[in-house]
Amino acid sequence: MLKALTKDKRGVLDNVQGLVIGLIGLGIVLVIAFLIYANIAANSTVAADTNASAAVTEVTNATSDIPGWLPIIVIVFIGGILIALVAIFKQRG
User: What is the rounded distance in angstroms from the CA atom of residue 63 to the CA atom of residue 34?
Assistant: First the structure.
């Protein structure tokens, strides 16, 4: 797989578009999910039921960690691109 990525610079840099689209998609899904959680928690039927209220709180707390991982994913991906570019220049030099 690395060989296919490092055939030329364009192959490596084309992966950036996929990353950006994926991160934007993930961000939109997370925003919608948190809006749905907020609307469910504000529902009077859910607020009256302690089990339902606790379940909504648990799910919200479990998914609240996901946005914190996005910068790490971006940094790892950029590092992979840099390593691939260095490998390309090393092969040509």
Answer: 9
pLDDT in tens, 22-64: 888 988 998 898 899 889 888 888 888 888 889 888 988 888 8
Residue 57 · residue 41 · CB < 8 Å = yes
Q: What is the CA radius of gyration of the chain?
A: 21
CB 31 within 8 A of CB 38: no
pTM above 0.70, yes or no: no
- Pair of tokens at residue 70: 């996005």
Question: 49 is written with which tokens?
Answer: 């039921």
